[in-house]
Each structure stands twice: as C-alpha cells, then as structure tokens.
Amino acid sequence: MSTPAEGTKAPAFTLLDQHEQKVQLSKLAGRKVLVYFYPRADTPGCTKQACGLRDIRDQVGDTVIIGISPDKPAALKKFDEKYGLGFTLLSDPDHEVAEQYGVWVEKKNYGRTYMGVQRSAFLLDESGRVIKAWPKISPADTPKHLLAALAAEA
Q1: How many other CB atoms sit within 10 Å of the CB of residue 8?
Q2: Which residues lie closer than 8 Å to 27 by C-beta, 6 or more apart?
Q3: Active site includes 46?
C-alpha cells in the first residue's frame, strides 16, 4: 500500500501499548495525533527520535504522540522507562498497521535485502485526516517538523 496522502482519512487501528492496554485511534477523535513509525526500540536512531519527541512534549499542547514499531509490549515498556518517554508506544508485531500506512517496505543493508519499517510520521487532525505526511523522515527532523506543522495550524 502507499502512504496516506495529506487530506485523506488515516487508516484506523487498534494495537497494544507498552502497558498491554488496547489503544484505538478512533478513541482519540477531537485531538491532533502524531503517528510515527520506527524500526526498533532502543536503537540509536529510534532513541534519538523518541527522545527528541519527549523533549518537545510540553510544546505540542493537546497533541497526542504515538510511536509504532514491530517490538513487543515488554520491549516498548523497557524503552519508555529507560528514557522517560512518557508517551504511547504501540506494538505492531505482524506489521499490519505499518502495511496499511505504506511504511512496511523492502530495505537493503550491507547487501542484504529484507522487509522492515521505513521511518515515517503522520500528523492527523481532530477528525483523523492526515494534515502532514513525512515518509522517510530522519530521527532529528521528526520533532522539528511536528512543531513547524503545529505552528502553521495555529
């Protein structure tokens, strides 16, 4: 699948968070939501991205931050606690949601080809429509782009 285009409805999902509680995107209606996908918890790029978002949490108002990776809830909990992230991390072990968002892609590393998560982010409006889509976003750019998009919406 391709990534959801700006102005379209974001694919709905229900996944377990780091506390093994179900989180439904539809239950967040009425708030802006940043949904970002990352390959693996507690790796250098993913840590930089998550800590960058943690550090701007107090600047995003009522916006919900949700990180999604193929990691199991226990690994997500450990990641959250280790870095004091304080936002929702969701487990997508079967990469169903990543596929719906078009971010489960073929990757190449050191001559090896495999399937994995392409780091991407989507800012959704209060009705679940995509305001901004950032496919292939860098870890350092995720918080910067989120703050710029929220400022443009204000």
Answers
A1: 12
A2: none
A3: yes
Helices (H), 26-131: 44-56, 73-83, 96-100
Distances (CA, A) of 47 to 31, 132, 151: 25, 23, 25
Query: Please, are residues 120 and 103 in contact by the beta-carbon 8 Å criterion?
Result: yes
Spatial distance between the Cα atoms of 149 and 129, rounded to a whole number of angstroms = 14
Give the three-class secondary structure for 29. coil
Q: Where are the alpha helices (DSSP H) in the chain?
A: 44-56, 73-83, 96-100, 141-153
Dig out the tokens for 144 from the structure: 């910067």
- Mean pLDDT, 10 residues at a time, the chain of 154 residues: 90 97 96 97 96 96 97 97 97 97 91 93 96 94 96 85
**Which residue out of 33, 46, 85, 133 is catalytically annotated?**
46
